[in-house]
Design a protein that fits this description.
two-stranded antiparallel sheet, alpha/beta
Length: 305
């Protein structure tokens, strides 16, 4: 089975059309058709349903697509492993990071790397944990720092670095603070929250459900945690963010915590890697560094703030 045919097959499957695949791959449609035919002859089964110009995968095609992606990922990792072996710790690491960890851990980590491994470069990707975990799972990231509550330990290895609490927040002059607050009071207000696939949102929804209360009324759903404080500070909207983001000089400096034990989520942040995946020498260097210094890096930066 030719790796090039598998790559062409993957592109055709993603785009569902020979013409668009040909434009992307700079190949003619007859050449791509022959590539698919070679695969189908080798495997002894049809890989696509032809529906006019549209090409839809058969069940066998779905299985091959999954295997082809795993194989391509393995080939890419083998190439990187050989290249990194020659370079030692000189190389690039693709590091994913949740917004809170990015705010408090990355500045100290980057500073230490500049001192100890100046030739090591980082490709930093920040975002919500669901997107980052998917990127790690598919090999687009080497390492990830995120809340460990969101991590499937069957797929990933984890190492805890620090503790955090996520709390309900509102503008400092919100009407909620004029009287004693209960969870039921929170149901009277609308919210700015992350998508339901994000761990903190799932936890909050489950908390309301377990207390037999209505789910939070979503006014705005966003994947930008850094945008939330500015939205909330001038509106009656509520949100759910890390307590580390509150206080002078923080992104949530204009917000106030709604003090309820029931809606305080305790979580661990840590390092996440794919199980049994290749770890390049530069990535291994960062793993060792975080295991030795991660907690201290976070603490030092928090105290400076």
């Amino acid at each position: 089975m030719d790796l090039r045919d598998l790559y062409y097959f993957e592109t055709i499957a993603d785009l569902g059309n020979l013409g668009r695949a040909g434009d992307k791959l700079h190949r003619t449609q007859p050449a791509l058709s022959k590539s698919v035919q070679r695969l189908e002859q080798t495997l002894g089964t049809a890989l696509f349903f032809r529906e006019g110009r549209r090409m839809r995968l058969t069940p066998a095609g779905e299985l091959l697509l999954m295997r082809a992606r795993h194989l391509r990922q393995g080939v890419q990792e083998t190439r990187r492993e050989i290249q990194d072996f020659a370079k030692g710790t000189v190389g690039n690491v693709r590091l994913g990071c949740g917004p809170t960890a990015a705010e408090y851990l990355l500045p100290s980590l980057v500073s230490l790397l500049l001192e100890t491994a100046p030739d090591l470069t980082l490709e930093l990707v920040t975002g919500q944990n669901d997107m980052l975990l998917n990127a790690l799972r598919t090999g687009q990231l080497d390492l990830l720092i995120c809340p460990l509550s969101a991590v499937d330990v069957a797929q990933f290895e984890t190492f805890a670095l620090l503790q955090d609490e996520v709390v309900v927040v509102a503008s400092v002059d919100h009407a909620l603070f004029k009287q004693p607050i209960s969870m039921a009071d929170l149901c009277n207000w609308r919210w700015v929250l992350a998508a339901p696939t994000v761990a903190t949102r799932r936890w909050l929804d489950n908390t309301f459900f377990n207390h037999q209360l209505d789910m939070p009324q979503i006014q705005i759903q966003t994947n930008s945690i850094n945008m939330m404080p500015r939205l909330i500070a001038h509106t009656p909207l509520l949100s759910f963010i890390s307590r580390h983001n509150l206080g002078v000089g923080k992104i949530g400096a204009t917000l106030r915590e709604v003090p309820l034990a029931e809606t305080t989520m305790k979580r661990s942040f840590g390092l996440v890697m794919r199980r049994e995946a290749y770890v390049s020498p530069p990535a291994a260097y960062i793993v060792d560094l975080l295991k030795r210094e991660g907690t201290a890096l976070f603490t030092d930066h928090s105290e400076q703030d």
